[in-house]
Amino acid sequence: MTWGTELWDQFENLDKHTQWGIDFLERYSKFVKERLEIEQTYAKQLRNLVKKYCPKRSKDDEPRFSSCVSFYSILNELNDYAGQREVVAEEMGHKVYGELMRYSQDLKSERKQHLQEGRKAQQYLDQCWKQMDNSKKKFERECKEAEKSQINYDRLDNDINATKSEVEKAKSQLYLRTHSADESKNEYAAQLQNFNGEQWKHFNVAIPQIFKNLQDMDERRTVKLGETYRSFADVERRVIPIISKCLEGMVTAAKAVDQRKDSAIVVESFKSGFEPPGDYPFEDYSQNLSRTGSDNTISTPKNEGGVKPDPKHSISKTAKNKLWLFGKKPKSALAPSLEDFSHLPPEQRRKRLQARIDELSKELQKEVDQRDALNKMKDVYEKNPQMGDPQSLQPKISETMCNMEKLRSEIHKNESWLSEVEGKVSTRGDRRPSADVNHHAPHGRESPEGSYTDVPNQEHRSPPHQPDPRQAHQPDEFDDEFDDDDQLPVIGHCKALYSFNGQNEGTLLMKENEVLYIIEEDKGDGWTRARKQSGEEGYVPTSYVEIAMEKNSKDS
């Protein structure tokens, strides 16, 4: 059944129906939009929930208990699940909502075109009908006028009193009216024939074709709705396998919870390494009392000579302090963390130091790799100058060397502390600051391990004036500076602006544009202590170099 033949006279109703179809399409589009907004909101809320319960944390705060690891795994899976909800929203927006909106605009344009064609055909048929109707009315008027002229002529022709001229005039008028009526009749017949032909074309050709186009458009709209219904479901179906994997991951995380492993981690985390306290001896405070009682009274022998109880058997303050393991922690245990972790029990201190050494070793290896890469690049530039300037890499190489020196110093310092914890003899144990000793070091220069030397005026330099570039530095004594087998940490680097011969004892030879490491700042006397990449150390005039200090050294 086609609209063109069955509904040839229902133009207005088809206009309303096609408009309803487009409105329904847009209503479904609005439904899809609200649905994808719900998905977006749901995914956003899930991500916020995951973010709330899984905040950013440092390496030290990484979960170790299997229950915590499983929980964070579930949060990660939930985050992936939220991502799939976002995929659903995105696919709905692109493949369903976006497609429906574009198709709706196309339908509106096509419907408008077909209806305009129908209205134009109807307007043309109405115009043909008006022309036919006008010719019909004209023919009717001309016939009536001819009849009047006929009646007037007959009256004058039969009237004996009428003059000949009046009769001739009426006869002439009758002829004109009759001729006009014949012309109007011919025109009316032609217009009627033309209208009948146009009306047949209108209802048998034009309107059926227009209505057929409208029918095809409406059927395509219906098919499109069915396709989008299927796409709506396919979007959900495509993410089901990934969502199933997320749920399987949650189940796997739940199975990974191991209570025995968590208990072992508790032991590893809080084991102090101390031995449990021994039995407390009996302390007899009645030894100085006179014994006058009966024989059945149990007495305790006196200490001869009024000797006090053996201090080995007395409850020492140190032993009492260890009772915090079973009761309230003393205030000393709540002290802030120290760099060498001396505030921790031996076992925990050993683990923390070892972890720090491993981390520093990794950083050192990265710096070594970077230095090697820069040196290779420098060699390439030296062999192929057109590729780049070798000197442009020198500041970066110097910075890398400084970082390596600092990392080696830190590793050496932590290894010394680790040796102390493990019971090894440390060559600098007396210089390392201890959390258990409450003494203040004298004011002096800080050593690489953070200790202080108490030798006053341990360096003698030239007077605190800007040194003359033409004169070599003549310090009186550098023995206490260079005899120390520890290298001072690098606190910056400098570039030589001029050459310096370094002939005097304690000074350092340098060439123009040579890059050196700074290990001690200028104390106001015009001399800066530096170190070459070869390890040679000495003083150079401060005015001869361009200095760049490290940020950490500036902050300190």
Structure description:
By secondary structure, this protein is mainly alpha-helical. It folds into three domains: 3-261, Substrate Binding Domain Of Dnak, Chain:A, Domain 2, CATH 1.20.1270; 346-424; 492-549, SH3 type barrels (Roll). The protein is 58% helix and 5% strand. The protein has helices at 3-6, 11-53, 66-158, 164-255, 259-270, 317-321, 346-383, 394-421, 479-482, 551-555; strands at 492-496, 515-520, 527-531, 537-541, 545-549. A five-stranded antiparallel sheet has the order 4-3-2-1-5. Helix 3 (66-158) runs antiparallel to helix 4 (164-255) and helix 7 (346-383) runs antiparallel to helix 8 (394-421). The longest helix has 93 residues, at 66-158. The radius of gyration is 54 Å and the shape is elongated. The model is unreliable at 293-335, 424-466 and 468-485 (pLDDT under 50). Residues 477-487 have a biased composition (Acidic residues). It comes from Salmo salar. Residues 291-302 have a biased composition (Polar residues). One of its GO terms (biological process) is signal transduction.
| CATH fold descriptor of the largest domain | Substrate Binding Domain Of Dnak, Chain:A, Domain 2
CATH architecture of the largest domain: Up-down Bundle
The number of distinct helices, counting runs of at least 4 residues, comes to 10
Task: Outline the low-pLDDT stretches.
Answer: 293-335, 424-466, 468-485
**Average predicted confidence as pLDDT:** 79
Distance between the termini: 93 Å
How many structural domains in the coordinates?
A: 3
Element string (H = helix, E = strand) = HHHHHHHHHEEEEEH
Strand order of the largest sheet: 4-3-2-1-5
User: CATH homologous superfamily of the largest domain - what is it?
Assistant: Arfaptin homology (AH) domain/BAR domain
Number of E-type strands: 5
Radius of gyration over all CA atoms, rounded? 54 Å
